[in-house]
Design goal:
The chain is mostly helical. The chain has 12 helices and 2 strands, in the order αααβααααααααβα. The two termini are about 25 Å apart.
């Protein structure tokens, strides 16, 4: 398709995702009212990232390794900076502060730090060895990916079995489900599938949009694609923050990042191994540095178990720094 058609396809599909995101949030809340905010947040993050995993596998098959890496990192950054920033800001503008379970949040951020370490190790390995390290980094990435998948399974056991109480919001007796559980689950599945179709059209139109709007691929991979691909869960998290359901909103934002770091990234790395594509955990220095700094900032802001609108502004400013930089450099 030509550039003009691509622009229209991109714009119309982006607009179509907005009401679908609202419906996805409604279905998630209905499930959360019946099964608890832990299950609700996990389902929302999982369905949101399923699109990311499918699109990543398709791009990987085409050999677009750098695009996959940038998109993966961009998803993590958009969740912990953009989404969490809007949650803190919009939830805090009408309140002095909002509270959430600090133990659960710190555990999640510690796991994010492990994800960051999985990117730092290949970078350090490459900088230390003078010889050609391609094969060594591949083997290292495959081994680390398997370990990350094991860590993710242990995290699910911790979240869903042994420490579920840490992730639950206090029950509001005035809120009762308005639909049946089967209807809510079916709606979640159907809406997620429709969102994935729109997201696929969006990605297909990206190339024409890049040429038409004059933006570089770094900005598309790190900023534009993650915002579009995760629009549904973004809207859900912000909606719950405005209702003061902070454990649920943080569960969506940070759990989504964890799924990207501990599940989607290692799975894509292993898929690359299976189809003979050299997908590794060795990212560019710029990407590794901003990932490390972003996780560090989030850790500082959530360590007291409270949030306010100013902390939201700080996260949004951090994201704006990164997006501004990405719009002015090309690292491919």
């Amino acid at each position: 398709m030509d550039n003009a058609v691509s622009t229209w396809v991109f714009t119309l599909n982006f607009i179509a995702i907005i009401p679908l995101a609202k419906l996805l949030g409604f279905s998630t809340e209905e499930i959360a009212l019946r099964s608890g905010s832990t299950i609700g947040a996990l389902l929302n993050a999982t369905f949101g990232n399923a699109v990311e995993l499918i699109l990543g596998a398709i791009a990987l098959k085409e050999g677009l390794i750098r695009v996959v890496q940038a998109s993966v990192l961009g998803s993590i950054l958009s969740n912990i900076l953009l989404v969490l920033g809007f949650c803190f800001f919009l939830g805090g503008v009408t309140r002095t502060e909002q509270k959430f379970n600090v133990t659960a949040a710190q555990t999640s951020c510690s796991l994010l730090a492990i994800s960051t370490l999985s990117l730092l190790i290949p970078a350090a390995f490459s900088a230390t060895i003078d010889d050609d390290t391609t094969e060594g980094i591949l083997q290292l990435s495959h081994g680390v990916s398997i370990v990350l998948l094991i860590v993710y399974l242990l995290y699910l056991f911790f979240q869903l079995k042994t420490h579920t109480f840490l992730y639950e919001d206090e029950e509001d007796e005035t809120e009762v489900p308005s639909t049946t559980l089967s209807f809510s689950v079916t709606s979640l599945l159907v809406i997620a599938c429709v969102v994935s179709v729109h997201a696929e059209y969006l990605v297909g139109a990206i190339e024409g949009v890049v040429e038409k709007w004059g933006i570089n691929e770094t900005f598309v991979g790190l900023i534009l694609l993650p915002i579009v691909g995760n629009a549904a869960e973004h809207v859900s998290a912000v909606t719950f923050a405005m209702k003061d359901k902070m454990n649920l909103c943080i569960g969506i934002a940070i759990s989504s990042s964890l799924q990207i770091g501990l599940l989607v990234t290692p799975v894509l790395c292993l898929v690359g191994w299976a189809i003979n594509q050299p997908m590794t955990l060795f990212f560019e220095d710029f990407e590794t540095v901003i990932m490390f700094a972003s996780v560090l900032i989030v850790n500082y802001l959530i360590q007291d178990g409270r949030s306010n609108w100013l902390e939201g502004v700080l996260l949004l400013v951090s994201y704006s720094f990164i997006s501004t930089t990405c719009s002015n450099i090309i690292i491919y």
